[in-house]
Write a structure and sequence with these properties.
Layout lengths: L1 H24 L6 H17 L6 E2 L8 H7 L6 E4 L5 E3 L3 H38 L4 E3 L2 E6 L6 E3 L2 E5 H5 L3 H12 L1 H14 L4 H23 L5 H10 L11 E2 L5 H9 L14 H12 L1 E2 L3 H10 L6 E3 L2 E5 H7 L3 E3 L5 E9 L5 E5 L7 E3 L4 H20 L6 E7 L5 H22 L5 H8 L3 E3 L23 E6 L2 E7 L3 H14 L5 E6 L6 H19 L11
Parallel strand pairs: 1-9, 5-7, 13-16, 16-17
Antiparallel strand pairs: 2-3, 2-20, 4-5, 6-7, 6-8, 10-11, 11-13, 12-17, 13-14, 14-15, 18-19, 18-20
Length: 555
């Protein structure tokens, strides 16, 4: 859903640039055929450009809003804490998804309305044409009326007054030109684009410009048949009043009549004006650069550094069997829902740019680059393969399949949380699928979502975290609660201030049911949050005499 919205915004951005480019460099020229293909070719290019993938060796000097949107994920908001003194992080997922779903409902409603209007219009047009008698001439099907009727064309069908047809008037020539140039197919394209971009007023402007070019081009074709320009212009004025046409048809209309007459009288531009189109090349290159990402191959190097900080576990069936009780104190892991002493480990690594590697903990070669679009499918595949292999070897003595999350201190918590949500969904789907074939009890025990977190480390060049404990942290807020009543709170605090307040509040409120809530910004880094957690842990151990605090930490 989010990927589609990002594509929509990218393509809309391209269409907006196309409109600006056309109005500045092409709209005033008399090279109508060129202008038409600038619009048609430009619109097709705008639909395809968001799919162009360009990887940069380094971070761009200025990060485009589109890169930021791709990295933007669910906002980390409210964090509550367990009574044991360990901080637990949660989100206001309901609000996030509520707004996202509401936006999609409004958007899809608009799409449905435009599509319905389009389909109904075409059905009316084709049903009406199919009922009429016609005569074929010059490869066209002419539907002729004895009564005055405003002429229009669609495909090979042309509707007009019989007298004007017999006189071979400029009106007849005009409609022939619409058909010869295939203007109706341009209308199909812009109508299709409008279904998805109905909310962008400049796309409607593009349709207006395209219809204008159609008229200029048809007028030019008429005048090339040795029709007197003054006679034709007077005819245009007389025909400026008429009945309403079908919106998808090409018609002899009075739209922008003044500009049409002006274009006929305007001196034809030099062929050199075509060179203006070449300016679209650097414009398209700039757009591709704006959509580009830093090269993800750097993730491998980052991960290689991360591996040097880990202890190697015992390998079994292509997966790692980790004794979690042995690792808790060694690696200061923050465990979540691990009930067994042993587990088969898959690993999700997130680097400083919020790019992911996912797969078995060992070796690296089996890990794959994943994003939010591919994470679901890859996780499902890994879980299925792991379960089937384990079942064939272990049967009734299977270990749970867990995911170890390794993050750079510069990685954003919002990115990790959004990735975790994808993993949870993958667990649920795989569990439902495998329960149809394997014992449900084993499936549930093995594939209940379980995650644990390695202490974030600075694998990148720029370490993240709290370098100076006396410097305030803007956007962070902590609350201390006793019996669900707030007994103290801090905003924009420093770590030194936090440590001092912990001692004070714990001394003033001697109670076992003491808890903490923490609020962090949506762009909070793992390193900063981890440093805050460490300060809270130390405070609890000092004041509440916790010698071995619980390792459970739900994020």
């Amino acid at each position: 859903m989010v990927a589609f919205l990002i594509y929509l915004l990218k393509s809309s951005f391209c269409l907006t640039l196309l409109y600006g480019f056309y109005k500045l460099l092409c709209a005033s020229t008399t090279r109508f055929s060129l202008n038409r293909w600038v619009l048609v070719g430009g619109m097709l290019t705008c639909l395809l450009l968001p799919f162009v993938s360009l990887e940069l060796e380094h971070e761009p000097l200025v990060r485009s809003p589109f890169i930021l949107m791709e990295e933007w994920k669910q906002p980390v908001d409210v964090i509550s804490a367990s009574a044991s003194g360990m901080v637990e992080i949660t989100q206001k997922e309901a609000d996030y998804w509520g707004w996202l779903v509401l936006s999609m409902v409004v958007y899809l409603s608009g799409c449905a309305f435009i599509l319905l209007q389009w389909v109904v219009g075409y059905i009316r047009l084709f049903r009406w044409i199919s009922r009429q008698e016609y005569k074929e001439c010059n490869g066209f099907r002419w539907v002729l009326y004895d009564i005055p009727v405003r002429p229009f064309s669609w495909g090979t069908y042309i509707v007009m007054n019989s007298q004007e047809y017999e006189k071979y008037s400029p009106v007849r020539l005009h409609e022939e030109m619409h058909c010869r140039y295939g203007h109706c197919y341009d209308n199909l394209l812009i109508q299709f684009i409008l279904i998805f971009h109905w909310w962008n007023p400049l796309v409607w402007k593009l349709r207006y410009e395209l219809n204008g070019v159609h008229e200029y081009q048809a007028d030019e074709g008429v005048l090339n048949q040795d029709i007197d320009i003054k006679t034709y212009q007077l005819l245009l004025v007389r025909k400026a009043v008429g009945s309403r046409l079908y919106s998808m048809a090409c018609g002899f209309t009075h739209s922008s009549l003044k500009k049409r007459i002006s274009m006929m009288s305007k001196k034809r531009n030099s062929k050199w004006v075509r060179l203006r189109v070449l300016l679209a090349v650097p414009l398209a290159a700039g757009v591709v650069y704006a959509f580009a990402r830093p090269e993800v191959k750097e993730t491998v190097a980052d991960y290689g550094a991360a591996l040097q900080t880990k202890k190697q576990g015992k390998e079994k069936s292509g997966l790692m069997v980790r004794n979690t009780s042995q690792q808790r104190n060694v690696d200061n892991l923050m465990l979540d829902h691990i009930s067994s002493e042993k587990a088969y480990v898959l690993e999700l690594y997130c680097n400083q740019r919020n790019q992911f590697l996912f797969g078995p903990e060992k070796p690296i070669s089996k890990k794959k680059f994943v994003d939010y679009e591919t994470m679901m499918d890859e996780t499902k595949k890994q879980l299925k393969d792991s379960f089937v292999k384990l079942y064939s070897e272990q049967k009734e003595e299977m270990f749970p399949i867990v995911v170890r999350i390794v993050a750079d201190r510069n990685a954003k918590m919002g990115a990790i949380t959004a990735a975790k949500q994808k993993l949870v969904e993958a667990y649920d789907e795989v569990r439902r699928e495998l329960s149809k074939t394997y014992p449900q009890k084993l499936v549930n025990e093995c594939l209940t979502p379980r995650f644990y977190y390695a202490s974030p480390k600075a694998y990148a060049d720029v370490p993240a975290g709290v370098a100076d404990k006396s410097v305030p942290l803007p956007g962070y807020e902590v609350r201390f609660l006793k019996d669900n009543v707030i007994v103290g709170e801090l905003e924009d605090f420093s770590l030194d201030e936090l440590s001092s307040k912990i001692k004070q509040w714990c001394k003033e409120n001697k109670a076992e049911n003491f808890s903490v809530s923490l609020k962090v910004p949506s762009d909070a880094s793992e390193g900063v949050v981890y440093d805050i957690k460490q300060a809270l842990r130390e405070g609890y151990m000092l004041c509440l005499l916790y010698t071995s605090p619980s390792p459970r930490d739900t994020r």
